[in-house]
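Reminder: ligand-aware prediction takes two inputs, not one.
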Amino acid sequence: MKILITGSSGFIGFHLSKLFLSKGHKVYGIDSMNSYYDVKLKRKRLNILKKYENFSFTKINIENEKKLNIIFKKFRPKVVVHLAAQAGVRYSIRKPRVYLGSNINGSFNIIEASHKTNVKHLIMASSSSVYGANKKIPFKETDKAETQLSIYAATKKANESMAHSYSNIWNIPITMLRFFTVYGPWGRPDMALFKFTKRVLENKKIDIYNYGKMHRDFTYIDDIVKGIQLLINKAPKLNQNGKYRNDSLSPVAPFRILNIGNTKKVYLLNFIKQIELILGKKALRNYMPLQQGDVKQTLSDTKLLKEITGYNPRTSYKTGIKKFIDWYKKYYYS
Ligand SMILES: NC(=O)c1ccc[n+]([C@@H]2O[C@H](COP(=O)([O-])OP(=O)(O)OC[C@H]3O[C@@H](n4cnc5c(N)ncnc54)[C@H](O)[C@@H]3O)[C@@H](O)[C@H]2O)c1
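Here is what comes back for the chain with nicotinamide-adenine-dinucleotide:
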C-alpha cells in the first residue's frame, strides 16, 4: 500500500514509517526538519528510514501548498497519516504564531491535497490536550471538549473541526487520533521522560510542576504505532442501512475521533520514582507551581478503539521507562 506520512522524521512519524516499511508498504515521508529540538536526532531517525528501498523522502514545509500538491499528485497515496505539527504546550505560550502556520495552514493543505487526490483514509494527529479543563475522567470522545488551555490544544481542536467539514462536503474518510502522552526510545527531548533522564544523569535538578500533584496517561510508542497500523484499513464508512456506523462520531460524514491511550493513571511522582529506580540514582528536585497552559490530569477511555480494531495499548509505564532509558544510555553514552 502507498502511505504518505507527514512529520516522518519526528518521534511518532519515525516509528510509524519504520513499522510500515518493515511490512513492505511504500512510504513517502515529508518533514521540514525544523530546529524546534535537536535536528541531529531527526537526521539520525531519517537515516535509518533511508536504508529501506521502499522509502522516499522530501524535505518540505507543509505550509508550501504548491510543492505539497506536486508530491501528492506524483505519489498518489492511498492512506495519509498526518503527524507534522508544531508540538509542545509550553512552547506555544512563547511562540503562538508558529502553531497557526504549521498546525492550521499546514494541516489545511494536507486535508485539501488529500481531497484532490482522492485519498481513501486520512488519519490525523489530534491530542488529549483538547479535553483541556474537563473534570470528568476518563476522557471519552463524546465528552464536550470546549475548554482548551493552550494555543497548541486550540489548534488541534480546530483541526478536528476543519477535518469534519471537509469530510462532510467531500466525503473524505477521516480519523482524528487523540494521542495521550506518547513516550519511548527516540523520544522528544522537550518531553518529561527525556528531560528527567538527562538531568538526573547530569546531576542537575529536575523541575516538578504543580508540586508533583498531577497524573498522566502515558502511552508507549509501540502501542501507538500498532494502533495506527490496525486502523489504516478501517476507514469510517456507511453501513448497509446507509447510515454511518456507530463507531463514527459524526451522523453525517465518514469522520471519527478516537482516543489512543494506555487507560492508566500514572502520578508524576511515581513516574519519577521509577526513573530513579532504573537509573539507580536520586533526582534532585525543584518543586514548581503549575505551568501555564498545562492540564492537571489526563486519562483515556479507549472502548471505541477496541471496538474498531480489537486492540488496546497495554505496555506498563515501568516497562516503557526501562526501554527508554536503555535506548538513551546506548544513544548518548556508548
Ligand atoms: N508525542 C506526544 O505525546 C503527542 C501527544 C499528543 C499529540 N501529538 C501529536 O502527534 C504528532 C507527532 O508528534 P511527535 O511527538 O512525533 O512530534 P515531533 O515534533 O517529534 O514530530 C513532528 C515532526 O513534524 C515536523 N514538522 C513540524 N512542522 C512542520 C511543517 N510545517 N512542515 C513539515 N514538517 C513539520 C517536525 O520537524 C517533526 O519532525 C504531532 O501532531 C503532535 O502534535 C503528540
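The chain has one domain: 2-186+218-263+300-310. Residues 125 and 177 are 5 Å apart (CA to CA). We will return to this case in the review session.
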